[in-house]
Amino acid sequence: MDKGALVVQVMDDSSNGGVGAAAAGGSFSSLRAYGRALAQTPRRLARRACAATSPGEEMSRVCARSGARMARRLRWHDLVGLGLGGMVGAGVFVTTGRATRLYAGPGVVVSYAIAGLCALLSAFCYTEFAVDMPVAGGAFSYLRVTFGELAAFLTGANLIMEYVFSNAAVARSFTAYLGTAVGVDAPSKWRIAVPGLPKGFNEVDLVAVGVILLISVCICYSTKESSVVNMVLTAVHVAFILFIIVMGFWRGDTRNLTRPVDLAHNPGGFFPHGAAGVFNGAAMVYLSYIGYDAVSTMAEEVERPSRDIPVGVSGSVVLVTLLYCLMAASMSMLLPYDAIDTEAPFSGAFKGSSGWGWVSNVIGAGASLGILTSLMVAMLGQARYLCVIGRSGVMPAWLAKVHPCTATPVNASAFLGVFTAALALFTELDVLLNLVSIGTLFVFYMVANAVVYRRYVAADDDDADHRRAWPTLVFLAAFSLVALCFTLLWQFAPAGRARTGLLAACGAAAVATVGAFRALVAEARRPELWGVPAMPWVPAASVFLNVFLLGSLDRPSYVRFGFFTAAAVLVYVLYSVHASYDAEEGGGAGAGAAALDGAKVQDEAADFKV
């Protein structure tokens, strides 16, 4: 887009909208102004809820609201390191034991391979958006340009809340794993009991607070230096994991891969519970892969997005899959599957061996490092999510500011660091296994749908062919419904030939739906630099698998998701829609400056895609 044309367009928009509100924040200038804004809520919702920006606007006008620009200093190896650090946390030490003992047996190796394939499909969807639109907002920005402001806000709000709560829980678990590493098994010895407070809120964890604040300072100082620290910690952590793998293969016995301890009560074989057990195990261990999505939020700081992002995101998923499969195989060789400790599978396998108890201390040290790296990557990602949410106008603009010296979103990083530390100080949050759980899985589902919609409906400008919208929306809804039917049958239908036949029918219907859509509807656009291969089969498979994984979560996860979503809707109706209306349609003195800054960044936007 021509720079002059962009300035004229934005200036015209500001002059036309100046009657509604005198300046950004006009709805909140007084109680009377806020009352008038609330009276106009239905009209503003109609205008803003489905309002979508273009990728050009996200990289120019919206990006300019942060003031200084983030420094583009990351390369593909930085992204691989961040992906490894974000995914290989402490969760794998828990999920492997539970999936092996309860569902898959030694076939958990195949479960990890299936889960890795699912993660790779979702990673492809993220990569297409990140290469085409290298901004820091990740899924929030992708959904904003595709489905509009409300869908983006709801998913972004759930992501922020899930990140904050899970980071607080993981920080508190660092205390427990650090104690294991130095031989202090009881976490209560590291915490201060406070009489009079309710259970679950009565143990002060200063170690967790210190870890969060230290990481917050690090990510505020420099993204590149944070990446270097993460690279060093991740390298040491991977060395610990390789040590565990070597010890497992050395001390293990291949007979444990097919022979349980109690043959009378537990089936034998490599797949003791059949295909159902393998897939149920894959649903559980898939949560160990969550973290690569945070890498997409670093796109604005990557030197060459078209080359570095595909290698960094996909490469990290492939490497993690290999590590996980080797870890699962070594553990299955150490003990028969029915003798594995579900809570501490690796350390438990060595505690019972004379002279090998020290290995459990090594495992505790490795898990502690994994917690540090996963925390750092998660906090980098959540700060960039909040920064771009602030840019969009639905949250205070103060959160969007990028410091000119550090080139990092200091305000968003500091705010979330203090908030997370406050939660970790008192609150015992038992969400370690589902680190980002339903919120992230829902966003994966939405991003896969968004890739299909944007390819077949939305173009890069404002003149998208909306006649294609209904066929694409009907396809996405029908395919999701088929995936839901398959998931419900898998979870609740009694075993037998009828269940198998119905599952096969659902699978055939899913394939037929995708095939018909591909034959009848042509793509509206093709990515210039990098695109998801085999469109629409790959994102459709991602949609199907994410619906299946969502069906495996427990009831409290859905209750938490519903609560967060309802709270987010309330915030949007009472605050965000009015702030967004002021920023985007209210006009005022800031519009001209934003236009000029946006034109400048738009003129440089091609540099992101080199």
Automatic annotation (TrEMBL):
Q: What is this protein called?
A: Cationic amino acid transporter C-terminal domain-containing protein
Give the organism, scientific name.
Answer: Oryza nivara (Indian wild rice)
What is the similarity comment for this entry?
Belongs to the amino acid-polyamine-organocation (APC) superfamily. Cationic amino acid transporter (CAT) (TC 2.A.3.3) family.
Cationic amino acid transporter C-terminal domain boundaries: 530-580
How does this protein sit in the membrane?
Multi-pass membrane protein
User: Which GO-annotated molecular functions does the record name?
Assistant: amino acid transmembrane transporter activity
Where is the protein found, in the record's own terms?
Membrane
Keyword annotations: Membrane, Transmembrane, Transmembrane helix
Residues passing through the membrane, by range: 79-97, 109-129, 141-161, 204-221, 228-250, 270-290, 311-335, 355-381, 402-426, 432-452, 473-492, 498-517, 529-551, 557-575
The protein's matches in InterPro entries, at most eight in alphabetical order, are given as: AA/rel_permease1, CAT_C
Give a GO cellular-component term: plasma membrane
A Pfam family per the record = AA_permease_2
Q: What is its main location?
A: membrane
